[in-house]
Amino acid sequence: MSTKYDAAAFVCPSCHPDPRMRTFRSMGLGEWEMSMNVLGIARKAAAVLFAAAVVFPASFHVDAFGAKPDGNTDCAPAVYKAVAAAAANNGAVIEFCAGIYQVMPPDTNQIAALDFSGIANITFRGKGTNTVIRVARPPYGGFRFSRCMNIAVEDIAVDHDIVPFTQGTISAADAAAGTFDLAVDEGYPAPDAPFFADAKSSFGVKVIDGVFYDLIVHRMKSVMAMGAPVFRFTVKDHAALTKAGLAAGDRYAHSYRWYVQSAIGAWDCTNISVRDVAIYACPATTTTWANTKDVAIRGMTVMRRPGSGRIMSSCADGIHSFGVRGTFLIERCHFEGMLDDSINIHCRAATVWSNISPTRFTVNNAGTFRCYPGDRIQIFDPAVGRIRAETTVVAVDAQHPYLHTITVASPVEGLVAGRSTREADNVYNLDASGGQVIIRSNFFGRHRGRSILVKSDAIITDNVFENIDGLAIAVIKESEYSEGPVPHDIRIERNVFRGVHGLGANAQPSIRSMISSVKGMSLHRDIRNIVIAGNTYADPRVGGIDIRNASGVSIVSNMFSMNAGGHPFPLPTVLLMQSSLVRIESLFVYDMSSNAAAAVRIHSTVDAGDAGVIIRGLNVRLPEGVAPVDDGRAVK
Q1: CB contact at 8 A, 121 and 146
Q2: Contact, 510 vs 472, CB < 8 A?
Q3: Who contacts 284 (Cβ-Cβ below 8 Å, separation ≥6)?
Q4: Which segments of 454-499 are extended strands (E)?
Q5: Torsion-angle region of 238 (φ positive above 0: left; ψ -120 to 50: alpha; else: beta)
């Protein structure tokens, strides 16, 4: 059996974006959402016209092709046959009954059990969480689509027969020797299982109160069987065990991570949707969206399988995206239990490989960066953490699959070439950094990592962030990662942030903007056009809003309240550093705790006077002697 179904007659359209009618920065929230609605109506109308011209069969049921939802039969061949039949009929619904459909990846496929290329107009639909697509063999993913169009996955759960992690209880720990013993829970794979040997990375977490993850160690030095079910881990960093205070009786999980074996992944596709899908385990980024146009994810749940006793859900991000164009909608989703971020939307960097002239240079695209004539690009200098230039692509000449020469409309002086994203200038596609992003009405529960990392043209609204380990919303550009561009044009509105006590040094503010260089925090203010309005913060763990390296920030009508329990550090509600043109209006702060600090702290690196910050309508209740505003700028 072929590892993929390839409909040779289907030719995908280019992922080159349509010209934008208006830029996000020129629109208000309501106007932009209205434009998105109009665009959606137009797409639906086009779909109706297309459907009128082509008659689709109602459905193909996988059981009719030999699938048995008994949890034992390999149903992958039947699914491939059903999809082939649907493709031959210009599309259809692929239906699944309630039950467990075991899917075995072919020996020749190293990514997914259900891997499709070049198919179109197909919906995979089950009976809600009563339909489970269970991947039989780690470390493989579930669904993978490449060069596909108009694909939907609906009302299905995805799980693994053998989960890509092990878990148990610590029976002994010796920080001086760098060892700890783990008694593996019944039913979980042994940490020396052969299929874990090829993992791209592995790391362990200590579990606090069953829901908070404290990172212990990245790669182990060795694992030794001590007699079932106990295994001894030896780590390279002894200090990590001391820092974590790992001791007998602690609950512990050790994950084994791969890169692209997602539960659902789309590569170079157009118009892909996920609706009401539950994902209980995954060895890689839970869902991956790579160089794809128009993505809608509604009602997706990433969580530990109910009643399973599992410590964690996915080994990596809930939604990981790079190079997406068009629109990217994420709504009514639920994230918890992952060992990394909930949502990470960005563009991957190309490295400046050689500098031919001020308007021509060659880049290494690493196989993930794409650009076309007419695209806007940003050139970032990681040495100091600043935008070197923004310009428009005129021509792209491919000398090699990875090496492309780009001609730009305006000269770029001082380009630095090199062989890594840390030593050379980075190139990001401003038109393929997530498209027009809407993240709304989602719930972010407890997991290790940040909840949202987003770079540009985004509305983040009406979400609930509760008890997370890390930033709730990260508006950041980190030079140590090849993810960009520098953030711009982001609205954060009407969200609720709920804190959790007892995190100590692990606590993070709710929202942070920041740029880092390869040597530390940047001295530049290239993050721009950020609106933080109408949000509610209940018991923030430390601070609330931390603005650095930004210009043009509005903080309007935000409300902070702290109960008597207090917070671990005396940090301000709003912290401003290395920024300018900040406007704070109608800020309400109630904090009578012993660690209460100023409502607004202005660092000395903020511009002087109104060019730095304007504050109006400050309404605070703080302990006697605590100033509402702590202005550290020198009088000029």
Answers
A1: no
A2: yes
A3: 139, 141, 257, 258, 259, 260, 261, 262, 315, 316
A4: 456-461, 464-466, 473-477, 483-484, 488-493, 496-498
A5: alpha
Do residues 612 and 600 make contact, with C-beta atoms less than 8 angstroms apart? no
410, β-bridge pairs: none
DSSP 10: -
Amino acid symbol at 265: G
Give backbone dihedrals phi and psi of 539, rounded to 5 degrees, phi first. 55, 55
Strands 464-466 and 527-533 come out as unpaired
DSSP annotation of 413 reads T
E strands present in 17-111: 59-61, 70-74, 92-95, 99-103
Name 142's Cβ contacts closer than 8 Å, sequence gap at least 6.
103, 112, 113, 114, 133, 135, 158, 262, 263, 264
Contact 515, 551 (CB under 8 A): no
What are the structure tokens assigned to 196, written together? 């874990």
What's the token pair of residue 522? Answer: 């940047």
pLDDT for the residue numbered 12: 28
Q: Coil, strand, or helix at residue 244?
A: helix
Q: Residue 500: is its pLDDT beyond 60?
A: no
Please, which residues bridge with residue 103 across strands? 135
Tokens for 636, please give them: 């000029």
Q: Which amino acid is at 614?
A: I
Question: Which residues, in sequence order, are CB contacts of 319 under 8 Å at separation 6+?
Answer: 285, 286, 287, 289, 297, 330, 342, 343, 344, 345
C-alpha of 376 from chain center: 23
Mean pLDDT of 123-138: 95
Q: What is the DSSP letter of 85?
A: H
Strands 496-498 and 464-466: parallel
pLDDT of residue 212: 61
Distance CA 546, CA 600 (A): 10
Render pLDDT for 518-552 as a digit per residue (tens, 0 to 9).
Answer: 989 999 999 999 999 999 998 776 678 999 999 99
Q: What is the dihedral of CA 170, 176, 179, 183, to 10 degrees?
A: -20
Q: Token pair for residue 420? A: 């890594």
The answer to whether 369 touches 427, Cβ cutoff 8 Å, is yes
DSSP assignment of 575-591, as one string?
A: EEES-EEEEEEEEEEEE
Rg (CA), the chain: 25
Give yes or no for residue 4 having a pLDDT over 50: no
CA angle 278, 200, 382 (to 5 degrees): 100
Burial profile 396-427: b = 16 or more Cβ within 10 angstroms, e = fewer:
beeeeebebbbebeeebeebebeeebbebbbb
Condensed to tens digits (0 to 9), the pLDDT of residues 443-464 reads: 999 888 899 999 999 999 999 9
pTM of the model as a whole: 0.89
Taking the CB of residue 189, how many other CB atoms lie within 10 A of it? 18
Helices (runs of H) and strands (runs of E) counted in the chain:
3, 53
Strand runs (DSSP E) across 218-281, as ranges? Answer: 220-227, 230-235, 251-257, 264-267, 270-279
Give me the amino acid identity at 32.
W
114 and 82 in contact (C-beta within 8 Å)?
Answer: no
- Average pLDDT of span 559-576: 79
- Range in 37-51, 106-120, 271-285, 443-457 the model is least confident about: 37-51
d(CA 463, CA 87): 38
**Which of 294, 427, 453, 286 is closest to 363 using CA atoms?**
427
Q: Is the pLDDT of residue 11 over 50?
A: no
